[in-house]
Write a structure and sequence with these properties.
By secondary structure, the protein is mainly α. The protein contains 2 helices and no strands.
């Protein structure tokens, strides 16, 4: 049983890119499943 909801979210594994498998640097309300490299992002 989960004692603290914050512990649950802190212990989630990093999201991985569906194309290359690298960890994705997530933002607050991001539902994307590809990393910036696979999306072709050149300049942040």
């Amino acid at each position: 049983m989960i004692k603290n909801i914050l512990d649950f979210f802190r212990n989630l594994p990093a999201k991985q890119c569906v194309e290359c498998g690298k960890p994705i640097e997530e933002q607050h309300e991001c539902y994307g499943n590809k990393c910036d490299h696979c999306l072709g992002v050149k300049d942040l």
